[in-house]
Structure formats: C-alpha cells, structure tokens
UniProtKB/TrEMBL annotation, chain A:
It is found in: Nucleus, Nucleolus. GO terms for molecular function: RNA binding. This is Nucleolar protein 11. GO terms for cellular component: nucleolus. SUPFAM superfamilies: WD40 repeat-like (SSF50978). Its main location: nucleus.
Automatic annotation (TrEMBL), chain B:
It comes from the Eukaryota. This is UTP4 small subunit processome component. PANTHER family: U3 SMALL NUCLEOLAR RNA-ASSOCIATED PROTEIN 4 HOMOLOG. SUPFAM superfamilies: WD40 repeat-like. It comes from Cyprinus carpio carpio. GO terms for molecular function: RNA binding.
Length: 697, 689
C-alpha cells in the first residue's frame, strides 16, 4: 500500500504575473537530495533545504528580465544554471551573491530548457529541438543551432533520463494536433522520432512522466479523459537504425474516474513501477471536488492513498526522492510518500508483505540503480534473460535460485518470471520450461505475481507446467481456470499421454481405473452398498439388464489417465461459483459432455470405492466433485436438456443420485434415532432423589 | 483426590415468582425488581448483577409498579396503597392508601418532587415527595376508565396517561387534559375488544410512544395530538416499554416473550433527520414480558417465566468481558436451604412455609459404579406454615437438628423439634417482635447459640439450652470511624467451628469480625469494591474465606488480622479466565475437616474444591481438567492437576452442604421442572415457525 504522509509548506507561491498563469516555473533537485531549487515566475530562484523548510540561498534577475526556464544545478561543477530572456545562459556558484555579476553567455537560438541529471553534464534543449551539452555550448556560445523541428512544431514537454552512465533526452511536440515524441540519445548521437498513437478522439496528452526501469524507459502520459497510457522505449538505441517516424506503441495502464465537471488540466508522475501520483482528477468517492492528490496503483487500478489539497491546483507535480512537490493555492507543499510493493497476492494475504526501499528500481533519474555487486544480481539476470540462449538462461536462473538469499528471492522470483515470460511471448523459440519449473518450486510465485505464465504454458501446451502451477497457485482467476479446463478438454488423449506429468497424480488415476476393473472381476459391491430398490426405474427402463442390476452403471473412464490427472487438478482449484459460472458457459457441448462423464465417473467411483483409500497426496474430494457437477449442470442446463448425446448420461446420473438421496434419507432416520438414544443416555433421569458417588481428581 | 457420597436432592419445589415490574436507577446503578408475590429485589448493575437486597413480599399485595425517586424506592399495587421501602434495613417503611381503588401504575418525575399514580377509578393522583413521607397533593381531571400507564414529560410539566382505547395528555399545572389520542382497536374479531394502552413513554422532544394490546408501538406528536408512525410489533400485546437515557433507543416487551428494540437513527448517513427504526429482536423469554428496562449498555427484561434476563447491547459495550455477557438470573443469590450437618436434616424455605426433610440412606453399590442403592427414602418430617401475612425472610436449622428458626419482616420465631422414633413434634420456644427480626440466621456449630443478623450491622446472640433460651447480648461494630449515617443491615454470618469467632458482612461491602468470648468487635476486613456473596471461617486455621460477586476470592487470617500468603498469591497471579467468566455468584464456602487445605465452593452450575496446596492454574493451563485427569494414569495426575477441581455434574444448584459424615448434599432445581410448572405460554414454538 502506498501512503501519503502529512505534508508541510515549503514556500509561498508569488502572485501570478506571466501569461501562462503559473506561479512556479519548476522545482529541480539541488546539490543533494535534501535540497531543491525552486524557480518562480517572478524573477527569483531559491534554494531550499527541504527537511528544514528553509531557504539557503536566493537569487533574482533585474527588473525587465525574465527567467525563461527553471534553474538547474550542475552536480559536476557545483554550479547553478539558468536561462533568462530565452537566450542568455547564466552560470553561478552557491556563494555568488548577485546574479548580474555571474557568468553569462548569449546563445544564438532560443533555449527551451536546461536539463540536468546527477553526475553528468547538463544538456541544453533549444526550442527548435536541437540539443547541446552545456560545456560545449558555453565553449562557443554563438555556434549555429540547427532546426530539428519543423516550423510550427512546438515542444510541449521534455525530460532527461539517466541510467548506467547513459543520458537520454525525451521531448514531446505538437504539430497541428499531432503529437510526437523525440528520443535523443548520445554517444552516438541519435534522434528517433515516434508518433504517439492513441485512440482517435483523444486530445493532447496533458502530462508526461518518464522513468528508467531495467534497461527500458517507461513513459507515462495522461489524457484529459483520465486515461493513463504507458509506452516502453529501449534505453539503448536499437541497432535497426530505422529511419523516419516510428509509431510508439502504448498500452492503457490506468483509467482515472472522471467527475461531472469538465477537467481542464491535471498532472501525473510515476512513483514506481506500480504507482502513479495524480493531481487534478477527482477523488472517486469525494464528489465533484477535484483538488485531490491521489496515488493509484496501475497494476490493480486501485486508489491507494489520497490527500485533499486546499486552494487552486496548478496541475504541476514534481517528485524527488520520496517527496511530492505540489503547488496549490498560495503555497508549495511537500508531501512525503511511501510506496510498498503490492501484489494482489499480498493484498489477499497470500504473499508476505515486504516493505522495499526502491532497491532495484530508481524513482527518478538521479536515483540510479545500485551498482552491480555480485556476479548474479537480479538486474543482470534480467538483462541476460533478454538476450541469452535458452540453455544459458535456464542455467543462470537455476544458479540464481540456488544462491540468492530467501528474502531477496521472494522479490526477485516474480521479476525474473515476468521477464522470462515476456521474452517467451515475443521470441517463439525461447521457452525455458526448466527455469519456470524451478521458479515455481521456490513457491514464491503466485498467479497475480506473474499472470501471463499460465496462459503462456497453455499456448505452449506445456501441461506439466500447468499442473504444477495449478498445485502451487492459490489465486488463479476463474476465467483462467476455465480457459485451462477448455484447453485440457480439447486436447486429444493421444497427445496428452505423451506429456510428462506429476507421477503421483497419474498413479492415482491408474489406481482409480484399475480399482474399477478389479471390482468388476470380483463382481460385487464390497462395501455392502445396496440402495433401496428403484421400483420406479423399473417401469422407466424396460431393459432386462437394468432390472437385474439396477446399478449396472457405466464405470469406464471417459478420458485418458493424463487428462484425468489434469482434470483432477482443475477440480481442486479454489473458485467462487458466481465468478466461475459465466466462464463455464464457454465450454462447447462435446466438452461439457466429456467433462460431465468424467465427473460422473469420479462420483460413481467414489461412491463405490469409498472404503478404498488410494494413497495419493492430492485427490479431489467428493464434495469438490459434486460442486463441479452442480456448476456444470447450472451452466449448461438447456444444452444438457436438448443435446441427444447427453440424454443417457443425465439419465444415469439422475438414477444414481436418486438412489443416493434415498439412502441418505434412510441414514437421516437412523441418525435421528441414534441422537435420541444418545440424549436419553445423557439426561440420566433418576427422579427426585439419588445417592451417587462422584470422584474428583 | 477423593470420592464423595452425594445426596442429589430434587424434591425442593422452589418456584421463583414472576417478574411484574422493573425500575432502573441510573445514578446508583441499581435495578429494582418487583415480583408477583410482592417481593422486591435490588440488583447492582455494575457488580455483575448481584442481588444485594431482598424485601420479602406478603400475601395479597400485588405490586403493579415500581419507581425510584432519588435513592428512594416506591411501589404501588392493586391493594390501593403506595409503599416506600427502607432499603437499608430491607423492609417496608410505610404504606399510604391512595383512596382511588387498585393502582395500576406509578411514576416519579425526573425532578424527584412528585409521584403520580394511576388508579382504577380513572384518576391520576399526584403525591408530593417529602423528606420522610409522601403527601397527597391533588387529582388530575378524572377520566371515565382506569389509568393503566403513566409517563412524565422530562420537564415535569406534562403527563401522558395510557387508558382503555386512548391516551390522555395532562397539563400538570392545571390538571386538565390537553389532548386525547385515540388508539385503534384491532381488526376482525378483536374489533369488539378494548385496546389497552399498556405502556407509554413521554420523550423530551414531545414524542409519546405507546405500546398496546393490539400489538402496536405507536408514536404520537403531543403538539398536534396526531399519530406519527405505528409499528406492528406482535400479534399479541406490547406490555412494556423503556427508553434509554439519551432517548436514542427504545425497547418493547411483548407477551410473546420477545423484546423489540427501536433506535432513533438517521435514515441517510450523515443527515440529521432521524427516525425511530425497528432494529433488533431478542427472544430470551418463553412467556409474557411484563417489564423491560433499557440501561444503555443492556436490555433487562423480566416476565412470567420468572427469570431476569440481561441482554447486553454489544454496540454500547466498550470492552467485551464476562461482565458484559448475556445473563439469566433464575435463582435468588442467597440460600433457601439449610442443613443440619450432624443429623442429616434439610430445611427448605418457601415464601409461606418451611419443610423439614430427613435425607435417605444408602447401602452398598447400585447397578453401576455411580448410583448407590437407596435403602431408605428421604422423608418429610415437618410442614410449618408461617403465621401472619408476611413471607419468610430467612430460616435456619441447627446443626444438631433440634432447633428451627425463621424470621419474617415482623417477627422471629424459634421452635424446638422433638423426634422420638416416628413421632415428630415441635414446641414454640421464642417469639420476638419487630426489632429483632433478622436478615440472616445462623447457629453455632455446637448448637448452643443462635446468631441473628439485624439492623445497623448488629448481631444478636441468643443462648439455647434444654431448659429454654435466653437473649444474651448484641454484637455491634466498632463505632469509631462512622458515627453518622445508617449502617446497612448484616447479611451473611458464619461462625467459626470452635465458637470463638463470628464474621458478618453487610451490603455496604463491610465485613466485621467479632470475638464471641469477649463479645467485642475484633477487626474489620479491608473493604473490597465488590459485594461478599459467601464466606466461611476455617475450622483449624481460623482464616476467613470470602467470595465476592466479581468472582474474586480472599482469605483473611483473623488472628493475624491480615490476608494470608495464599490469598496474596491468588491476587498476584490472578484467577483463571474461565473462573472469572462464570456468571453466577458462589453461594457457600465450606471446609473439609479431613483435608484442611480444601475449600469447597459452589455456584448455580458447578461444585468446586480448591486445594490450596496445589499450584494455581494460569491462563494457559486447561481449567476444566477433570476428564483429562480421569483419563491419565495415577502417577501422571499429580503433574497435571491444579488447585481448582471443578465438578460440573450438577446443574441448577440451589445449595451444596458438606455433612459431618463427609457426604455432600446437593439440592438441584432443574429449570425444566420450573418451566413445566409455569402456565402455558401464549405463543408456543411450532415446527419451523
């Protein structure tokens, strides 16, 4: 769960002067994580020590000059950089008092922003889309700046992302309603243009946020209709070197609820891989008031924390080192937050909740992934999975599982599995079954940690993996259970027999079918099971054979051993019948009949061989079987009523169930009498007087 | 540990009397209960509903209503009189005739200045409550039919009176009727029957709530005199209503035995417009509920089935504990049976008579290990009717079986019993009038003295001999610290075996110890917050063992005038959770002379022997371990046993006594037997209804 802690005010927001109606130009990281640099639109730049809520330095430009971009701190040279009047770059140190006396250089084109990342040279982004390192620009300020963008293309947003000593500048542009994303990489300098493609009818994205995760840049952008899309860009330029505009694939990761009021603005910022902070959108349960800061979980689409913000919201939101900076009303508030990794399994109590400290994930660009320490870190493993051959990957995963400490493994298993699954999904030749089995055996996986695994196994027809997953996962959704059931039922028995399955379950099936034949040989019911004669049935079925033995039921197993073993696993999964029922309707008629035949087979077996204890670890219980029969009958009532091939099956089942009902009715009578006997014994009625001996110990 | 021969006695036909009225006093947290036989009991609500006081009734005094005025308790009944009780001495203080025929209801105003009674002749009579008496003030406008129920507006300016087919609202100032609210009769055949407004409640916002014989709870507006809402609660009668102090919860008792709760809550969350909504139904009674009381944390109800039920409202209870559990009080919290330990006699105390029985005898083993063959059946020796109209307050038989004594509110009578072979005869030895009437009676163990606990914590001594009896003196507590104020009357008086010590406890929670040789007060046990329910003086160590209503126990050394080490250890280690959660008080403390470390206790549901030489159980040990111990081999029992040996073989115990031949007498009164003697309930449970 994410938490928003009690916030505090860092500084006031001055009266709005400029046209953009924004009081604060930007908040940037200062010389370490406790310092921020606030550039307000009224000519001043202030450094605050956040924990003390105190300014430690302030500079302002002369009357008439305008600060045109947020000031940044160059951590390499320990200098502040700002641009005034679009073209004048000013550089000064902490102890410089007067900005006028500081170093300044006039460049030949309008500067949009100076972007700075920790421990690297600041990058200057020009309005025309060109990019220069600050030191090279200052070396010759008047150097010509090329036009990258077309004339009416305007940069809407820009950021810099750094990971593994590699810088990437991202900026989005708008041109006649078309939105593009430019990715500028350095060494070698490449600029890739992506077209942001979303559903038609969406207006411009109103807020962007980029993070670096693994070797990918995750870009999140927010639309006015509340949709949050995510795009993943590789960190290193792909070697394909495709020219021209590439379409940027994106996926909807969150739909924010909208209030009745029409929204004008809003902002979102990524907090970690699962959490997004959003401002300007209404709280789903707090009415029309939209002045809320909310943390949403993108995995589960859930609201995790929220805080009401007083005063006007400026649709600006920054996040630095565990604190959110929100200008609202006449102040800039700092709100510390905490996001814990959450999975549905954790929420359901099926996974141990571990609070994590952003160990393998950097919240923002300056918070780089920790350096590789040992030979096999999660990050490295994940990297290897992306590229290595199947055999290598399997060996490495095995090695990793063996060597990683349990606590780390718990976190890493899901990530590794996700990575393996995503590679397998894209690369048809890549399917590390061993690695999956090993990961499953750690028992740190559950369905919600890696939802794709089971469907992948189904696609690959890897029934062994399916079986293990069914045994281990306790949180498989009913839809997936049904999909698996369908796949199992539709696979021919011949194909199924070749599959390598958990031996225990196969032995159980063998015993079950053999028991049938044995009892046939002996030709009698061993447990003395003899239901009352089915007089009514005699008239229903004139068959002589039936008359002789009212229970001459079809006791042959309708499916092969392996298929039976897999079906047994399905029967033992946890489910809620209301959720299962609609999915169960997807089964085709032949599937329903085969499944019902199999359930009937199990039911008959269990009723007849109740005295026989087949030694197996996991066997479906009689109540599970009955529950599934009920569900199946409910889901396909009309089909079973109409389908001619089902007639015999349903008739047999009914006959047997009726005999059982009669039997249990008799048992109920016996129970009643026994109960009375027991009660009468308890209330020892001795009349009015007795002399007894009691013994106390 | 040992075997006991047990005389299981079930022929004591004790019938608790039905409950007619309840009155709750919030300030002193006491609830007063009036029964059909005219007795009035006072329970302490915050001391586990311990029955502190019993004022016995008398013939022909049907109490119809109870009302507290401050700390004073008044009742009114069909004999037409208003009675005030002397709660300190547990007796009737005086009775004033209202001269209006039978009185159906009595209600005191919140200011504590006036009492109103509703009479058969159709008048509401106002009485002024003076310092020591009540004084008739005036009548309100006389109505045509009897006044069944009354309720004062909290301001004291108006009175609502429930009658036949209507409710009248009176202005107290003028005495005139302000509004007349007509209650509808039932439909169908009951159309011809009058609608009796059994109960009314007047709320401070002007709402009048009525419960009637049609089964409706109706809400009326006193400004307009109109019906606001009506709830059909039952097909039978709604007999009683009670509202909580802050007027957000109302309970209605019906003749089907259900209590229906209404709550004043807002229909939309967060909105302020509240309504009375029917919320819960409790079914703890089999018969008519004649009285209910909403005491904020619980609903107390009583009726024809004679049990007092305390149903906690769990939303109002902050800490769930044994004190907030459902409680059903069936039997009085004092003993109705006394046993002559040396001669095997039992004296049963009924309201109007005494019965003396001789226990049977056994011979050898019966058909199984448990039951013994009964050689001689028990025998009723005596049926002694009480003289006068007053019911018996207390009684006792001497250990030797020669003396019988009983006391009513007005007199104390002592009889000598002569038994030669089969002829039993008695002679009256002593009759003392009012001032010596006792709250509790007890004989010394050698039957040479009678102790009678009386008013003002004093104990009278009467010496008994073959020739006759003689009043020898009065024991009074040291009059040092409390010279002013009335002493509560004493209640429980056990005398020590050697005849040297006597201890008496009063309902002020004080326990005084007297030296019988010097006839002086010896010392006082430190006062504990809970009432003493039973105590006993150990025959050899002379330690006083006390049981309290909150299930705590203390052992106090009389000679050293301090708690014993064992008692301190119990206090330090605490008692087991299961012990503390029992909901009936311990009613007797006995000692086994053959095992000096054993203390025998009992409550309604169990018999317990505490072995002080064994370790105390902590919360982790199995408390009820008798079955476990039984299954263990002899040598392992020692390591598993603890001090509390609880026997749950017996149920609904009225009395346990250890006779001098080491046998136990257990007098049970099975609740099924009580239920079978009750009249048939209005509504009987049929299958699946």
């Amino acid at each position: 769960m994410a938490t928003l802690y009690e916030g505090y005010t860092l500084c006031g927001v001055g009266p709005v002067q400029n046209s953009s109606n924004i009081g604060i130009l930007g908040v940037e990281q200062g010389r370490d994580i406790d310092y921020v640099l606030v550039t307000d639109s009224s000519r001043s730049i202030t450094v605050y020590k956040v924990s003390d809520q105190k300014p430690t330095g302030s500079w302002s430009v002369k009357q008439g000059q305008i600060i045109s971009c947020p000031a940044v701190f160059n951590t390499q040279s320990q200098e502040y950089v700002v641009v005034t009047d679009d073209r004048v770059v000013r550089v000064w140190k902490e102890d410089d008092v007067n900005l006028e006396k500081a170093f300044k250089a006039t460049v030949s084109a309008d500067v949009l922003r100076v972007l700075s990342a920790t421990d690297s040279e600041p990058v200057v982004l020009f309005c025309c889309g060109a990019v220069r390192f600050l030191d090279s620009l200052l070396a010759s300020p008047q150097q010509p700046i090329e036009d990258v963008l077309t004339e009416d293309e305007i940069i809407r947003w820009s950021t810099i992302v750094k990971a593994e000593h590699q810088l990437v500048v991202l900026f989005s542009t708008e041109q006649r309603g078309e939105h593009c994303l430019y990715v500028q990489r350095f060494n070698p300098n490449t600029l890739v243009k992506h077209r942001i493609e979303t559903e038609p009818g969406l207006s411009a994205p109103i807020s962007f946020s980029a993070t670096c995760r693994g070797s990918n840049i995750h870009l999140l952008y927010l639309y006015l209709n509340g949709s949050v899309y995510e795009s993943v860009l590789p960190f290193r330029s792909s070697s394909t070197g495709a020219e021209g505009v590439q379409a940027l694939s994106c996926s909807l990761c969150l739909s924010l609820p909208l209030g009745e009021e029409k929204l004008m603005s809003g902002a979102a910022v990524v907090l970690d891989e699962a959490h997004v902070a959003v401002i300007g959108f209404p709280h789903p349960s707090a009415g029309a008031c939209k002045d809320y800061l909310c943390i949403w979980n993108t995995h589960f689409q859930t609201l995790q924390a929220s805080k009401e913000m007083a005063g006007r919201i400026y649709s600006q939101l920054w996040c630095y080192s565990g604190k959110l900076y929100v200008p609202h009303g006449k102040m800039l508030s700092v709100i510390p937050f905490d996001c814990q990794k959450s999975s549905l399994a954790a929420a359901m109590g099926k996974l141990k909740q571990t609070s994590r400290s952003g160990k393998d994930f950097s919240v923002e660009i300056w918070n780089i992934c920790p350096n590789v320490k040992s030979a096999l870190t999660v990050d490295q493993l994940v990297e290897h999975i992306k590229t290595s051959a199947v055999e290598d990957v399997q060996a490495e995963v095995g090695e990793f599982i063996r060597r990683a400490p349990q606590a780390d493994l718990q976190l890493a298993a899901g990530r590794v599995a996700l990575e393996l699954v995503s590679r397998s999904q894209t690369d048809a030749n890549f399917y590390p079954q061993c690695a999956f089995l090993q990961l499953l055996e750690t028992r740190y996986l559950c369905y919600s940690v890696c939802p794709e695994l089971l469907s992948l196994a189904m696609v690959k027809k890897d029934f062994h993996l399916c079986q293990i997953a069914f045994q281990i996962f306790s949180d498989i959704p009913e839809a997936v259970t049904c999909a698996c059931l369908k796949a199992i039922l539709s696979t021919p028995d011949l194909e199924m027999e070749t599959v390598n399955l958990d031996t225990d379950s196969v032995i159980f099936m063998k015993e079950l079918t053999q028991a049938h034949s044995r009892s046939d040989e002996e030709g009698g019911q061993l447990n003395g099971f003899c239901p009352p004669a089915l007089e009514s049935d005699v008239s229903d079925t004139p068959s002589n054979k039936l008359q002789r033995d009212p229970l001459s039921l079809d006791m042959s197993c309708p499916v092969g051993l392996h298929k039976g073993a897999l079906l047994n696993e399905v029967l033992q999964t946890a489910y809620s019948d209301r959720s299962l029922l609609p999915h169960l309707k997807d089964l085709t008629v032949p599937q329903v009949i085969v499944f019902l035949q199999y359930l009937r087979f199990l039911y008959f077996k269990y009723s007849h061989d109740a005295h026989k204890q087949i030694r197996a670890l996991r066997t479906p219980s009689i109540s599970q079987i009955i529950d599934w029969v009920c569900l199946l009958l409910d889901a396909h009532f009309t089909v079973l009523a109409v389908a001619p091939e089902a007639k015999r099956l349903v008739f047999d089942l009914h006959k047997f169930v009726r005999s059982q009902v009669k039997l249990y009715a008799e048992l109920g009578k016996i129970e009643g009498s026994l109960q009375v006997l027991k009660n009468s014994k308890q209330s020892e009625d001795f009349g009015m007087y007795a002399i007894q001996v009691i013994e106390l110990f | 540990m040992g075997e006991f021969k047990v005389h299981r006695v079930r022929f004591f036909d004790y019938m608790p009397s039905g409950i007619r009225a309840l009155a709750f006093n919030r300030d002193i947290e006491r609830i007063a209960v009036a029964r059909m036989d005219g007795s009035v009991e006072v329970f302490h609500c915050s001391d586990r509903f311990f029955q502190e006081k019993i004022i016995p009734g008398r013939e022909q005094c049907g109490i119809e209503g109870l009302s507290w005025v401050g700390e004073r308790l008044f009742s009114a009944g069909l004999n037409g009189g208003i009675t005030e009780y002397d709660l300190t001495n547990q007796k009737v203080k005086y009775t004033v005739d209202a001269y209006g025929g039978p009185i159906w209801t009595i209600a005191g105003n919140q200011q504590g200045t006036h009492l109103a009674v509703g009479c058969e002749d159709g008048t509401v009579k106002l009485f002024e409550v003076n310092e020591d008496k009540i004084q008739f003030e005036r009548n309100l406008d006389r109505q045509k039919s009897r006044i069944i129920s009354l309720s004062w507006h909290p301001s004291g300016s108006k009175i609502a009176a429930g009658m036949m087919d209507m409710i009248q609202i009176f202005n107290v100032e003028t005495g005139h009727s302000v509004h007349r609210l007509l209650a509808d009769r039932g439909v169908g055949t009951s159309r011809s029957k009058e609608c009796v407004v059994w109960s009314v409640v007047y709320l401070s916002d002007g709402t009048i709530i009525s419960g009637d014989s049609v089964g409706m709870v109706k809400l009326w507006d006193d400004q307009t005199g109109t019906l606001i809402k009506s709830h059909n609660v039952t097909k039978c009668d709604v007999l009683a209503l009670s509202v909580s102090q802050n007027e957000d919860s109302l309970v209605a008792g019906t003749s089907e035995g259900t209590v229906v709760q209404f709550q004043f809550i807002s229909m939309v969350l967060g909105k302020d417009d509240k309504e009375w909504v029917r919320t819960r139904t409790f079914k703890n009674h089999t018969h008519d509920i004649r009285a209910v009381a909403e005491i904020t944390t619980a609903v107390v109800s009583g009726g024809m089935d004679a049990q007092l039920v305390v149903r906690p409202l769990l939303d109002k209870v902050e800490v769930r504990s044994a004190a907030s559990a459902l409680r059903k009080i069936h039997f009085p919290h004092r003993r109705l049976v006394s046993c002559a330990r040396k001669s095997g006699l039992m004296l049963f105390q009924y309201p109007g008579h005494l019965e003396l029985w001789r226990l049977g005898e056994s011979e050898g083993k019966g058909e199984d290990d448990i039951h013994l063959f009964v050689k001689r059946n028990p025998e009723k020796l005596l049926h002694l009717k009480v003289k006068g109209e007053d019911h018996i307050r207390c009684s006792a038989v001497s250990p030797c079986g020669e003396w019988i004594v009983y006391s009513t509110a007005s007199s104390l009578r002592l009889y000598r019993l002569h038994c030669d072979n089969n002829n039993v005869s008695i002679t009256k030895v002593l009759q003392i009038s009012t001032e010596l009437s006792a709250n509790q009676l007890c004989f010394s163990s050698d039957s040479s003295h009678l102790f009678s606990a009386s008013t003002q914590s004093s104990v009278h001594l009467v010496s008994l001999s073959q020739s006759g009896c003689k009043f020898v003196g009065t024991l009074k507590p040291k009059s040092g610290e409390r010279t002013i104020g009335i002493r509560e009357s004493s209640k429980i008086i056990p005398a020590s075996e050697d005849g040297k010590w006597l201890a008496s406890a009063n309902s002020d929670h004080e326990v005084h110890i007297y030296n019988l040789q010097t006839r002086k007060a010896h010392c006082t046990v430190p006062v504990y917050s809970s009432a003493v329910t039973a105590m006993g003086i150990h025959p050899t160590t002379n330690c006083l063992f006390m049981m309290y209503a909150d299930q705590q126990m203390c052992e106090y050394s009389i000679e050293q005038k301090q708690y014993t080490d064992w008692s301190r250890m119990v206090q330090r280690k605490g008692l087991h959770r299961f012990w503390m959660e029992r909901d009936t008080p311990c009613l007797n403390v006995m000692f086994n002379p053959q095992h000096p470390s054993h203390v025998i206790l009992h409550d309604t549901y169990m018999l317990c022997i505490i072995d002080q030489s064994l370790p105390l159980p902590d919360d982790k040990t199995q408390f009820y371990n008798q079955l476990t111990l039984k299954s263990l081999p002899e040598e392992q029992r020692k390591s598993h046993s603890h001090a509390f040996k609880v026997c749950k073989t017996f149920k609904d115990i009225l009395c346990v006594e250890l006779m001098s031949d080491q046998s136990l007498v257990v007098v049970e009164r099975p609740l099924e037997d009580v239920a079978s003697q009750l009249p048939a309930p209005i509504k009987q449970k049929k299958f699946a209804t």
